[in-house]
Amino acid sequence: MLTEQLKANIANGMRAYLATHQDTGMSQNKLAKLCGVNAPYVGYVLDNKWNAVPAQGGTALGKISDAVFLKIQKALGLRQEVFETVNFLAMEDRLREAKIGQQWCLVDGLTGTGKSFAAEAFARQNPKETFLVQAANNMNQKEFLQAVARAVGANEQGTPYRIGGAIAERLLGMEEPLLIVDEAEGLFKRNSEGGFRGLKDLHNLVKERCGVVLIGANKFREALVRRANNLTGCFPQLYSRLEKNGLEMAPLSREDVALIAPAYGVRGKRELDRLFDTTANFRALFDTLRHEEAEAQLLTAAA
Questions:
Q1: Number of C-beta neighbours around residue 14 at 10 A
Q2: What is the mean predicted confidence (pLDDT) over 96-119?
Q3: How confident is the model at residue 4 (pLDDT cuts 50, 70, 90)?
Q4: If pLDDT is split at 50, 70 and 90, which confidence band does 75 have?
């Protein structure tokens, strides 16, 4: 059960989020949609009335469930699960540079090094003209362009040429647009350019007037280099735009564990060493910490 203090902290976080994003048109209704909760609940929480919600046709009062608070907490990143690790800060800097400087760049790293987490956190904190697209396996040119069109609010109907033009028209009307393509290794197809053809077409339309960051995993850069060196399709030209601003994410370090674990109540050197020795990456570390925290809470509740 969530404490009243934690609920109050979440309410304060909601107020801060609304104030910070006021210039983007953020409203209580939009906040409710972002968090996946009913709009009236947002108003009751902001008014500190989560224990006095009209129920049974207004003849009784009910309480907003803990599940609603947890949804809000997760959507807005209110729990301290954003830690300023070397990877997180490097990713944040690269995304900001790409957005402000309208750069095209490439991010590579092993699975579980925090690439997607950092990209989602950046998009959440910088929603104005930041668009996050998740590639799917074996996407072709048109499918990729349609996904981008949906993200930026452009018309996704018609030929790839028309869709690309609609996307470019939207992006070129913005001040600091940033397109983040996560899991970009999904754009590869065995015997064709796949979704990368759409990416090259997009570059030809917007040039350096839009930031684009491709995030891939498990030797993504190596796969691009191999195709570029073999003069395969669009890859030589595309990679030439990406190679100058590359970022390689580092594996989990002992320092990362020491930074993150105390937030979950783990502080002793022996326990920190155990976590570092038994977890392969950031994802595994967080899974382990959450699991152990939940077990500790159950034991406390049962005592």
A1: 21
A2: 94
A3: confident
A4: confident
| pTM: predicted TM-score of the whole model, two decimal places | 0.73
Compute the distance between CA of residue 303 and CA of residue 300 in angstroms, rounded to an integer. 5
Q: 4-76 architecture in CATH?
A: Orthogonal Bundle (1.10)
Mean pLDDT, range 127-149, rounded to an integer:
92
Determine how β-strand 178-182 pairs with β-strand 53-55: unpaired
Strand 53-55 and strand 60-62: pairing?
Answer: antiparallel
Domain ranges of the chain: 4-76, 103-248, 254-302
In contact, 210 and 180? CB cutoff 8 Å = no
> Radius of gyration (Cα) for the chain, nearest Å?
22
In contact, 216 and 184? CB cutoff 8 Å: yes
For residue 230, pLDDT beyond 80: yes
Amino acid at 71: K
Token output for 71? 């949804």
For 86-90, which contacts have Cβ atoms below 8 Å and span 24 or more sequence positions?
86/250, 86/253, 86/255, 86/256, 87/113, 87/114, 87/115, 87/118, 87/249, 87/250, 87/256, 87/282, 88/114, 88/117, 88/118, 88/121, 90/247, 90/249
| Model pLDDT, residue 81 | 63
In contact, 146 and 153? CB cutoff 8 Å: no
Looking at 3.30.450.80, 3.40.50.300, 3.40.50.1100, 3.40.50.800, the CATH number of the domain 103-248 comes to 3.40.50.300
